Amino acid sequence: MWFSVDFSSHVPVYKQIKEKIKALISVGILKKGDFVPSIRSLAEDLGVNLNTVARAYRELVLEGVLQPVRGEGYVVAELDRETFVAKMLDEFKRVVDECKKAGIDQNVLLDVIKEVFGRDEK
Fold first, then answer.
1. Taking every annotated instance into account, which residue ranges of this chain make up the domain HTH gntR-type (predicted)?
2. CA nearest 2: which of 41, 60, 48, 40?
3. Based on the domain organization, do 53 and 8 belong to the same domain?
């Protein structure tokens, strides 16, 4: 299996798929021109509906992360690492701004960041 999703998470499955693919790109496992699994194949591997994977791929295309290749599937778009990281940081800033507006203390956010980075060390 390519990766897994957490069905008990509050994060929708299609968003988890998007984030997992972005993470694979950001660490260099997926590179420009690499094919991602077909919608049907990934849906079967993850045990999710085809429409869920299709939505994730569609949104990744709109974000410029994936590119459809007619009759062949989807490939990682021509996106250099700096541009990709900049897009991810912009998205992160947007979420942090939403948290700030919601009154979430910055120390809580810092704890979440430490928790996420700490998972890799386990």
1. 11-79
2. 41
3. yes
Q: Where in the sequence is the domain holding 97, given as residue range(s)?
A: 80-122
CATH code: domain of residue 62: 1.10.10.10
Q: Residue 87 half-sphere exposure, CB side, CA atoms within 13 Å?
A: 16
Q: How many domains does the chain have?
A: 2
Q: Considering the entire predicted model, what is its pTM?
A: 0.70
Give the residue among 13, 60, 104 at the shortest CA–CA distance from 113: 104
pLDDT reported for residue 78: 74
Is residue 64 within 8 Å of 21, Cβ to Cβ?
A: no
pLDDT tens string 27-86: 888 888 999 999 999 999 999 999 999 999 999 999 889 999 999 999 999 766 777 778
34 & 66 share domain: yes
Residues in CB range of 67: below 8 A, 6 or more apart: 61, 74, 75, 76, 77, 78
Domain match, 19 and 47 both: yes
